[in-house]
Amino acid sequence: MSNHGEYLIVLTCFDYHSLIHTCGVEKKKISHIPYGISIPKSSKDFKSVEILSKYKDTDFVLLSIITNHPNEDYKRLILNLKSIISKIPNLYLLIIVPESLTINSNLSQAVKNVLLEDKVTWTNKSISANELHTLYRRANAYISLLDKTILTFVTLLNAMSYGLPIISTPNIFSNEILNYDKGLIVSFNDDKIITESIITFLTNQTRMKIFSKNGRESVKKWTWNNIAKQYTILFNNSLKHTLIDDPYRTEMYWNNTGTLNFDGQNVFLSLAKDKAQPGIYTIYSDSFLQLNGKLNDNSTIEEDNSTSKWFIPGFDIFSHSCEGQRLSISGMEHNAFILPENILQCSEEKSRKIQLIMDGRFFDRSSFASVNRKMFLSLITYKDLLVTIRPIDRTVHPDETPLETLLVYSFFLRKSILFSKNKTIIFRNNWLPNLEGVSKNEILVHQQPWEFHAIPVHWLHYFQNKIDELWVPSEYGKSSYIANGIDKNKIHVFPHGVFVEKFNLTLSPFPLNTKKTFKFLSIGTILPRKGFDVLLQAYNARFSSKDDVTLIIHSTIKDLMKKIKKTRLSPEIITLGYPINDIDMIRLFKSVDVYVAPYRSEGFGLSTLEAMAAGVPPIVTKYGPSLDFCPEECAYYIDAKVTECFTNPCGKMEVFGLKTKMQAMWAEPNIQSLSQNMYRAYTNRIELRNKSQICRKHAEYYTWDKIADKIVKRLSQITH
């Protein structure tokens, strides 16, 4: 387009700068001409609209008009609406969606869960232009919860033309049009910020009037007559000015303190403390956030349905030669500003002392992929370490949402790293294990968690003779390999980690269909070694439907539930048999009182550590990896008896069909002990609170930063 076209017309200042700074298009070829709107006549007559009949003149109507499917921010708004209404009792939310869309069942259920069906009105009925005019006239304020990659949105401009005070989430367009006191931009990543910002804004009449006036005056420039004049001037080759001021014309600078609201308080919480930390980085101008993706400040990214891929060009994610992030939406690339030279202060590849290739799964939902992603993103920030990946799975699933997945995938899509002739470390962590050797100039480190004590004979020769080091996440794993004949000097323990800071956000509770106030949680696949059968027996033996308690199980548990004979006295059980994204999983942890893991065998138990990071004390089997990171001060131990395992996948002297030197072992949790511990946690709330505080503090010893420090230290020792 740049080579063959005379002009490129862009709708936003963001696109204007992106084409110049990241695509190299000549400035003189680009013209910024936005969409146009029709300014409403100043009539105060309200025509009759059925949907408005329920509102009194004194009611405060917050209007939102959606032209696409509602995103997750609407659910967040509804979940926080009760807190907002407690301060603004006459507030009503009116949401208009296109006739072609059905009302989202999840959002409707969210309204029911918070008992606000009289306060929230949805409609997808056909609305005429006159009726729409009346809706704008009747509303007291407008809220726009658009995806952060949105480029322009006419309904937002229309609302401003009617003089409605605007509340918006950060996106490319809102950050351009709502700056300089024309609208309030609120991050929807922290529930406390959502409620406090909206309440403060909607109860400040003076501030709303200022925003209303500024917004209405600003969009008068956007009339279709003015847009037509811009094209006429362009065709006469004399376009020298734009309809709106360029919000990015001042010098761009990095900032990690966040967007400010009108009182100068942080709305968007701080991002990574160190510029070389992994994350989707953003560029700020005049305290207004410029985004090129649906960024969350807790290191996650809510993937847009139209997003096909993220990628970061350059020789390294954090190399100063990188041109900035690019987001491809529906086949069209959107580019961030070029990063100033050395902004990330990352050393060049040639000066890296350690070269590491990570081999295994990275993009699926397995625990192996999750650990590999987290380890990679923790290691890549070290200046002496050059890391690349060799994934055996090469596709990101459409329903994957974590930022870590997209970042690692972006790394994989870019050009391959050119390694020097120095020795390279190959790190493997996968199921099933890759037992192939490596070249003489490569050092092989293999990480292999294990649950059944007896190691397949087929693996032992490889672990003893083909690798340089064997890494395991627990002392239990180390003792198992030693018992099977592996040299103890080859084995090193590096536990898995957790991003503790993610659990420190103020979040609304996970929506659960229960009136019970005390909640147990258990997470895992339905395998014999996970002990769900023991859990259900213990729970049913101790509690009944009369008790104020529920057990939440995140798994597919239908087959197991059939084995439990339910009566009207059976205690409540809630099953969540669907995938839950990272942020909602944290909300789930923070919505429960106790985490239960009555496993028979376990490789590490990452969910238990995540529960502790959320301040949720675990009830765990007194056997295996939990003894490493669950001190008695914060955990409840289930008595267990170590016994031989003949249950699938174990057989006589075999595991997963592979022969072993000894019989597989695991521990049988004592049902009575589990039952007693569940009742103890339920009845002794003071002890539970104390354990909660200890858990949260103890989890800080297992952050990925701390684990990465130990790993890098060991890698340095290996290469010297």
Automatic annotation (TrEMBL):
The keyword Glycosyltransferase applies. Residues 56-217, 514-627 form the Glycosyl transferase family domain. GO terms for molecular function: glycosyltransferase activity. Coiled coil: none annotated. Keywords: Glycosyltransferase, Transferase. Gene3D superfamilies: Glycogen Phosphorylase B. PANTHER family: PUTATIVE-RELATED. InterPro entries: Glyco_trans_1 (IPR001296). This is Glycosyl transferase family 1 domain-containing protein.
